[in-house]
Each structure stands twice: as C-alpha cells, then as structure tokens.
Design goal:
- The structure is a homodimer of 364-residue chains.
- Chain A is of the alpha/beta class and 364 residues long.
- The first copy, chain A, is built from 16 helices and 13 strands.
- The first copy, chain A, is 47% helix and 15% strand.
- In chain A, a hairpin with a 5-residue loop joins strand 12 and strand 13.
- In chain A, helix 4 crosses helix 11 and helix 9 crosses helix 13.
C-alpha cells in the first residue's frame, strides 16, 4: 500500500473528522428528498416550476436579473467566457494562473471554445489593480475567483475589487466572478451576495462547496446573457431532461447552510490559530478570510504522514486524507471548515494539537 | 389559452395515460433510492465503486471492453464522434438528416467540435447500404441510430446492418451506434445487445427512454476510446463530483425494465393495430419494430385536438399531450409504450378507439 493510501485509509477509519460537513454518502441525497412530495413534477429540459423557482431564488440572492442552473461550474464558466468573447469578437480572457479553467478542466476552454487565456499575476499572489492596469493584451473578459482557492483562499481588499470593477467598466472588459465559494466570503467582507455581485457582469456559484450539496451550479447575469447560456448549455450536453436531483438538494442545503457561513468563518480562524501555534506549521492565509485555508508543514511528506497517522490512531480524530508535496520538499493540504468542527469537543481538538505539537518538536 | 396547452391540460387531467411509464415526478427517484444504504459513498469525479460497478455492468451487457457514464447522450455522442475524427484526422462524419445531433443539439457538434456532417439518405427513409457505398466524401465515422426515432422508430434489416458494418470496416470508417433505445429493438432483431453492438466500434445507450430512469447515458467501446472520452467529459463539464443520483436510478430501472422490453414491443404492435383500424389514422411503421411508433392523422391539428379533448374528458384516458402539424396540414405524434399500457383494462382501450373511430368518421 502506498503511503498516500495509508494516510487515506487511516483518515477514513477515524471516528471524527475536523474538516467538512461529513461524509459524501447517499444519505446526503436521501435527507434532502425526505420531505419533498413525490408527486411534484420533474423539470423537463430546463423548464418547469422546480427549476424556475430555484433559478429565481438564486438570481434574487445574487441580485442578478436571471439565473440558469447548470450541472457543473466547469460548464457554466466556459460558457460565460464564450458569450463575452463572442459579444466582443475577441477570443481572449484574463484570469489568474491557478484559475480552475487553467488547471482543472483539461483545457476545455481552449479545446472546445478556442479561447486564449492571458494569465495575470504570479501564481502565489492575488490579481491586483496594477495587473489589470498594465495588461497589454485586449481581452473580452476578466475572471476573478473569490476566494482564490489554490493559494489558500485569499481575498483582495474590497476597495481593490471596486477599483478593478470600475476599471473594467471603463475599458469595456466584462467582469466575471468565479464565486464557487461566494457565500463563504461574505462574513469577512461584511457585504451581501448582491453587493459583491453588483461589481460583476456575470457570476457563477457552486452548490457543493460550503453549501454542501451534491453537485450543480448557477450562472447569473442579465437576461440576454442567461438566455444565450441556455443555448450553450444544450450544446455542451448539460440541458438534461431532469436536473431535479441536484436542484432539490442544492435548495435544501442552501437553506440549511447559508445561515452558518459566519460560524464556519469564525471556526476557520480558531482552527488556523491552533495550527499556527505548532512549530514548523503555518496556515495560508495566516488569518483566514473565509471557511478555508491551507496548512503548510515545514517538514517532509513522509515525516508528516507518519505523525498524522499516529495521531489519527491514538485520538480517533482525522485532520486530512492527503498531503501535497511541494518542490521544496515540504508539504501542505487544504482545509474547508463545515458543520463538523462546531460539533467537536474543544478538549479533543486541544488534545490533537498537543500531540501534533509534541510530535513535530520531536522531529527536530 | 392556446389549443396546444388546452390539449396538454386535458391530457394532464386524465386519470389513465396510454403511453409511457407514468408521470415523470420525484417519486421516480425516491423509489430508486428506497432500498439503497445511505452509508454508501458517493462516486467522486468519475471514480468510486458506485460508478465503476455500473460501468462494468453495462459494458458487459453491451459486450464492450469498457463503458463510461455520462450525464447526457448529447455529451457522449459529440465526444465519440470527436475522438474518431481526431484519430483519423478528418473532421467529417456521416449520419441521417434527422439525427439527434443535427436537429436537437443547437449544433453543438459544429460549434464546439467543428465537425462537419455528411447527411446520408432522405429525411423520410432509413440509411441503406447503397448510401454508404455511394458516399463521395471521406468521413471518419458513420453514426447509425437504431431505431431511427424521427421517422417513427424504423429499423433496417439485420442483414443490412451487417453489410454496412462490414463495408465500414473495409473502408476504415468507424461505426458508432446511437443506441438511445437499443434495448427496445432487441426483441424484434432477436439478438442480444452484445450481438448488435459487435457490429459497432462505439455505442451510446440512454437510461431515460425505455428504461425510464431520470437522466444519464453510457458510452462504450475499447479502453483507449473510453479513456479518451473521460478527458473530453471533463472538458465538456460533465465530470461531476457526484453522478450517483443518475447512476443509482439508471441501475434500478435497468434491472426493472430490461426484462419487459418484449412486452412493450408486443403491446406496441397491438396498440398500432387499434390506431390502424380507425379511418384516416395510420401508424409509422405500420407494424412497430420496437416499443415506439408515430401516429399520423389525415386531418387538421385543430380537428384532431378537439376530438382528443372530447375523448379524454369522456373516458378519463389520455393518448397524447401534443400534436405536431405537418406541412401538408395533417398532424402526428409519437408513442412510446411502457409500463402503463399493460396495466390498462382492454375494455377501456376498446372504448377509446370506438370513440376515436366514431369521431373521425363524423369529420368526413
């Protein structure tokens, strides 16, 4: 068995798991359907009360005219960028080098839409106003991801966001929000979703990140934009005869978890403090601005794995199922705080971090 | 209220409906999940026991090396054709003028994949061996749809299929099966799914036609082909974190309805006879070769609508929710026989057709 799968196995066998909302099992769907009347009619190829109502609800939450439900964010975002490119007649968009479209989609944007990305900023930092000001290429659209997941979920100052938005409007560049984790950042910004979205021409929201649904996404904007997105949704093969399994579960967990976003954020800050109190461990960002952050261990993957397995086995508590190795020989992983952390006895958490502290010290 | 929606409303208010498996409501999913253990883990981005097992099961049913589950047939088939085109370095495929890709997908194949179709045969007839023999353009792939839905679900002779398959192999043309309704034609051909699929290089099967699931499709072929299809599935935005709501329901209704395909076929033949016994009504094909056929009325849409509404109201039985007008001023609709017909008292069916007979005669 490889070390990675050993850590995974040890994690799976823990009784308590600190990150997330709990196991991604079939019960998630069963719970969401429990109270739904079986006689309710399916949506049919994007039409019907079940999809209309949910689209209207989320459009209103985002402060946009209209919204369209998609099976995935990958599909929704490629389509958003395609529409803005077609509108401007320029097949170029700007985004961060670690944008989801650049690293997780097998180059769908390039292979299917022949859109060329202009990469703004270095990999390890956020896009700033100057990056947009100094951009030489003419682009149809700028995509901002809030929070910037691959660097620990960092966020620009709200003023920077406003300045970038104003600049884009002045330059005739459409501004698209990768808001996969939009609800998770609102407590930090102290803004409503609609306030943040008012800075953007189009917005994507995911239902299986902080919201903890099964799958599915919303793309929102003005009516001309969303109507065109429906045509592309069909072209992509996303206009399914029935999307209700994802719609009903998204709706259920949206209602359940939107009110908890502040709690996840506060818990993430507390949990990050625990990590930062250990030697050779630090979080990025140091103080989280959402429910997520990255944990960096200044030790080798092998060393940290054996420490973690020891802790999982002696406490029954799991911190992560994987570690990612860096080029420098250190390692890290991503934390998203959800329902689990709050249900956790504080004494147990302290015990885990005491052990982590001791074990890491013994490495030196 | 428009006449179309009047017919739809009248149909919805009927107690009994002759075509199909029953209403497409949420209960379909609830029934499928009823006995599933909630602790079973979700599939995760195309991996996990739930998706592996089902893909292996359907690959075996189709007699193919491997199979990949897709959210939709639209996505699966565009990808199949793209792979064959890339392999041959020719961006041309041949298919029927009423192929799903040509008329129901907003030109996804052209817009996303830049593949040009060569239309074989006239709209109102099947592709025959001569069409393939006489094809002047060089194509990477020929797609055959069995049964050819838009002309009532017609089928070529099995010998013709074998000849086309041999010819394609000789000419180096890949043969792809649009087998959305493959299980439905097996009783007529008296072949297994694997026998029919052995004539094809790649096969698509749908789970919400005769099988009556919620949504979802399989694409099957050799391993090199299906592995490449997974990359394109991600590019299309179809590699969802969880596809299990569609997988579990597809599996449930596959097991329930595959054994009933012969019954649907026999029932379709009986039902077609009832229609053909009415004046000015005929079915296409005259004798069905699957569970489906088209009903053609040699009267205007308005006349037939008012007759149907009268019948629905007096008998509580619904035949169709819509009528499609032809250029000649006549009208037609599509029937797919499912679970409903067999549960229907024969006396009630006879009463409906007696009324239809009388009403149509009174038109003259």
């Amino acid at each position: 068995m490889s070390e990675a799968s050993t850590l995974l196995q040890a994690f799976k066998q823990t009784k308590y798991q600190i990150p997330g909302h709990g196991k991604r099992n079939i019960q998630i769907l069963k719970d969401a359907l429990q109270e739904v009347d079986g006689q309710i009619e399916s949506d049919v190829y994007g039409n019907g009360k079940i999809i209309d109502d949910f689209q209207a609800k989320i459009a209103s939450y985002l402060g946009k005219e209209t919204a369209v439900f998609f099976p995935s964010g990958t599909m929704a975002q490629q389509i958003a960028l395609r529409i803005w490119c077609d509108k401007k007649g320029i097949k170029k968009v700007a985004y961060h080098p670690l944008c989801h479209l650049e690293i997780h989609e097998e180059d769908g944007l390039k292979q299917l839409h022949h859109i060329e990305p202009v990469l703004l900023a270095e990999k390890n930092r956020l896009i700033e106003l100057d990056d947009v000001l100094n951009m030489k290429e003419e682009v149809a659209c700028l995509l901002l991801e809030l929070p910037q997941r691959e660097i620990g979920g960092q966020l620009p100052d709200y003023v920077t966001l406003e300045e970038i938005s104003n600049l884009c409007r002045k330059k005739g560049i459409k501004l698209h929000l990768d808001g996969a984790r939009l609800p998770e950042i609102l407590p930090y910004y102290q803004k409503s979703a609609a306030e943040v979205c008012s800075l953007f021409d189009s917005v994507y929201l995911s239902f299986y990140k902080g919201i903890g649904g099964i799958a599915g996404a919303i793309l929102a904007g003005d009516k001309a934009f969303t109507e065109e997105s429906k045509v592309w949704k069909r072209r992509h093969g996303g206009d399914l005869i029935s999307l209700y399994p994802y719609i009903l579960s998204s709706d259920y967990y949206f209602d359940e978890r939107i009110p908890k976003m502040r709690q996840y954020y506060e818990d993430a800050k507390e949990l990050a403090e625990f990590f930062n109190s250990c030697p050779a461990v630090s979080t990025m960002p140091l103080v989280p601005v959402s429910n997520m952050f990255h944990v960096h261990f200044h030790a080798s993957k092998e060393e940290v794995e054996s420490i973690l397995i020891k802790i999982y086995e002696s406490t029954g508590v799991g911190l992560t199922s994987y570690l990612r190795e860096s080029i420098e020989g250190t390692c890290s992983y991503e934390v998203s705080v959800g329902d689990q952390y709050a249900t956790f006895p504080k004494e147990k958490v302290k015990q885990v971090f005491q052990l982590l502290n001791d074990e890491i010290k013994s490495l030196k």
